[in-house]
Structure formats: structure tokens, C-alpha cells
Amino acid sequence: MWRCYKFKIYPSVEQAELLNKMFGCKRWIYNRFLDNRNNAHKNGETIPTHESERTELTTLLKGMRWLNIADRSTLYDALERVDRTYNAFLKTVKNKRYIRYPSFLRKNDPWQSYSCKDTQGKIKILGSALIMPKVGPIARKATREIGSKIVFASIAKTPEDEFLACVVYNTDSPISDRAKDAGTGKLTENGKEKSDDPKVLQLQKSEQRLRRLKRQLNRKINGSKNKEKARQRVRNLERRIENQKRNMVQVVKKNHKSR
Known about the structure:
Structural class: alpha+beta
Helix content: 40-55%
Number of domains: 3
Distance between the termini: 13 Å
Strand order of the largest sheet: 2-6-7-1-5-4-3
């Protein structure tokens, strides 16, 4: 059974610059081969297969040395994403729906990410560091140790210039009772959820604090520094609540799959 472990990472300045370059390499490969497929479909030509694209990518890596900044599994993963995206597009064309070609990745997208498979055991979690190919050890917030084999890992950059890592690993251990009880709270007479789950209680406390911070924000003088500080506190808490809700949804999905 596959499980996902998502946490924050804190790369150095040099590592952050390298990660941005790897985002660019993955984006360039994705857009190039997606454009080839779009042009072939518009001109009525044969759409390139995934195998032919892998051969072409191998040739590109020999001629364009700057692509070797990224790990090869990252670039081949971009090809797989092109193949999945275009197969979904061809299904809409077959069903005679509205034809809308897949969109390209942009440099100014708020979220940037890349993924790589752990084919040679290069992705590791050792203590408070995440070891990634081509990047090396990256500092992380150590909350859990993974003793199982890692399948693949993804690194994303948020609109707030924060970096997140998502590690998928294979394990045979069952889901804990705490995870099974997540999202099973009961409703009281006034319609509010009452639960003993720590995640639900933490979310409710965060929402109460958000309402209090918004009231404080409205009382600040417009144009003052205190107004900007209060606005920043509201933004940070809203982002935290969004992450808490996303985490609860993922736990509930895992619970239903295990049943």
C-alpha cells in the first residue's frame, strides 16, 4: 500500500536557485512535446507515441547539456504527464465534446513543481534532511521517519515562495485508529461539528482565531504599519487553515480506500 508524507523543506539559497532551474527544465520539456502533439493533431498528422518521444528526449539530452541540471527521471516524468494529459484530451475529442487543447506550463504560475522516481535509491530521509538527486540534503521539519522504500518524491514551490516536499512510500502497516476516526464527528443541535479528533479541534480553534484577527484588522487605521502587519497575520492563518482542511480530506480518502 502506498502512503504519502507531505512536509516543509528549507533549502539554502544555492539549493533554491537549483530547484528553480529544475522547474524550468521540466517546464521546457513538457511544453516542447505538448506543442509537438498539438501541431500534429491540428495538421492531421500522426501523433507521436510515448516511445518515440523518449527516444527524442535521449537525443536532446546529448545535445543540450543544460537539461542535465535536472535528474533524468524528472524529465521522463514530464513526458509521462504529457502522455496522460493528451490521452485525456483525445477522449474528449472522441466523445465529440468541446475541443480545448491542453494548456502549457508558464513561468509565472503561482505553483511550480517537479517529480522524480526513486529508481536507484537516491531519495532518502535521514534525520532532519531530505536527500534528493542533483540537490543533495535539504533541511526539513522532522516529524516522522520512513523506514519503507520510497517510490517517488515531488517538490513544489508555493505562491509564498515556500517549498514543500511530498514523498510516496510503500508500506504494509495498517492505518492507525486515529486516522480511521478522522472526519467522523457528530453534529450538535446547533449544527456544529463536535468531535474528539485532535485535527478537528485544531481546525475549530484556528477558525475562531481567524475571526478574531479579522475583527482586529478592521479596527486598524488604513495605511498604517499595524494594518499591514494584521493583514499579513490573517493571510498566514488562512493559508494554515487551508492546509489543515486539505490534510483532513486526504486522511478521510485514505480511510475510505482502506475499507
